[in-house]
Amino acid sequence: MSVINETQHAPPTERIVEERGRWITNWQPENQDFWEGPGRPVARRNLIWSVFCEFLGFAVWQLWSVTVVFLPAAGFDLTSAQQFLLVSLPPLVGAAMRIPYSFMVAMIGGRNWTVISALLLLIPTVAMAVALANPETPIWALYLIAATAGFGGGNFASSMANITFFYPAKEKGAALGVNAAGGNLGVAAAQLAVPIVVSLFAFGHFGPSLPVAGVMWIPLILLAAWGAWKYMHNLTNASNDVKGTLAALRERHLWIIAVIYIGTFGSFMGFGSVFPTLISIQFPGFSSFQVLGAALSLAFLGPLVGSLARPYGGQLADRVGGARITAVSFLAMAAVTAVVVVTLDWGSFWLYLGLFLTLFTLTGVANGSSYRMIPLVFRLSVPEGDRVGHERKASAALGFIGAIGAFGGFAIPQILNASNEATGSFDTAFWCFAGAYVGFALLTWAVYMRPGTVFASARV
Asked: What is the Cα–Cα distance from 457 to 459, expressed in whole angstroms?
């Protein structure tokens, strides 16, 4: 047994007791003296490395969204439907992986699982580097490798589950907001960095050097795994709440908010996955720009503004109510998607880009506001005498809502592809999205804003 930065004779509130394997046995963030003493610096250090690992997880999760645009020019003979499926598989698998990932922190420790989950990212990156070196790679192999990129999507659930144990209740929201936003930025980073790097490594002779799209992340993944192993901690008081999980699954509000989250986070992931492909199809001349010999795609701007907007959505929810911000965001998203259809024939790329940046911003705001609704909704809907309690149910619900919402990342590219296959355009898909956003807004209003309900009175 060892003690971090203190002597073993110091009072429990002034020291952290650490056992072999970096297990902290006396973590007590709700104790003010402990938190303001040794607690906060340790929590911050764990948050920093958690954000870095989750950032890489999101980057790997979205690798295929930007890389698929280069495949035809590199000799890969793919149909439009095959390209859309390649960008859809990582969100699908990532959504499914979020559920088991959320339990791993309590099973083997937050630090231990962060190291493992980071190293798992080597599978999709190394496999991508090998597969993209040969244009004769069969499509089934590309599908399988794209599916493994979903490991990165699971990182969000385990990272959020881990960090929530480190912070006191009054600071959980801010810490989780930083963790989520930092991870979301990985989408923008991948879509910005991959085109630049693959074009710079082409040396002007052989076209894009696609294997580099996977190789470039390997040193960062190894650094993240080393940093998590060296600086993060496991907490002995972090445990899976099986009873709370089973009770949460019986709560109808888990499923209602999960549907709403499909419209918010699902839209962010879905459009993030497909935006580079949409630009390459509808505005091929603007698919990339040459800057000092490097290819630059503006598709990264969408996930960037969406990620940066997420914390503001949470702040607005605290001020005027999460349901109100979410509903207004949905109505605005419906209007923007309708305008996309109406103005597409104008052939203006810059208008198209501006509309999508607005849409991404709205998804980010709605992500933050809808996620902030969860604790308050469960506090108001769970009776005081409930044996499990609203806090345990809300905590368990967070992982499931995040997993279900991520399935929107698979649905949006597939709906767009179905529209294109059936009608030769994406118009039908966008009209469907607009109608769905109106439906999400009505659902939010009917359940959480309708006058006379307890949720409306509390300004959920």
From this structure: 6
CA–CA distance, 375 with 372 (Å, rounded to integer): 7
Q: Per the structure block, which two tokens stand in for 231? A: 């600086």
Residues 221, 261: one domain? Answer: no
CA distances from residue 114 to 32, 54, 97, 124, 151 in whole angstroms, order as listed: 28, 9, 14, 17, 12
pLDDT band of 295, cuts 50, 70, 90: low
Q: Please tell me the total count of domains within the chain.
A: 2
Residues 141 and 129: their CA atoms lie apart, in Å, by 13
The DSSP code for 28 is -
Residue 378: domain span: 241-460
CATH code of the domain covering residue 358: 1.20.1250.20
Cβ(316)–Cβ(365) below 8 Å: yes
User: Do 3 and 104 fall into the same domain?
Assistant: yes
Q: What amino acid is encoded at 182 in this protein?
A: G
pLDDT of residue 385: 72
Query: 173 with 304, same domain?
Result: no
In the block, residue with structure tokens 């990264």: 300
Residue 438 above 50 pLDDT?
yes
Whole-angstrom distance, CA of residue 1 vs CA of residue 6: 13
Give the residues across from 2 on adjacent strands: 18
> DSSP letters along 391-408, please?
HHHHHHHHHHHHHHHHTH
Dig out the tokens for 409 from the structure. 């990342």
Give the Cα-Cα-Cα angle 351, 353, 354 (nearest 5 degrees): 65
Interatomic CA distance for residues 254 and 376, integer angstroms: 12
49 or 396: which leads in pLDDT: 49
Residues 231 and 263 in one domain: no
Computed over every residue of the chain, the mean pLDDT equals: 87
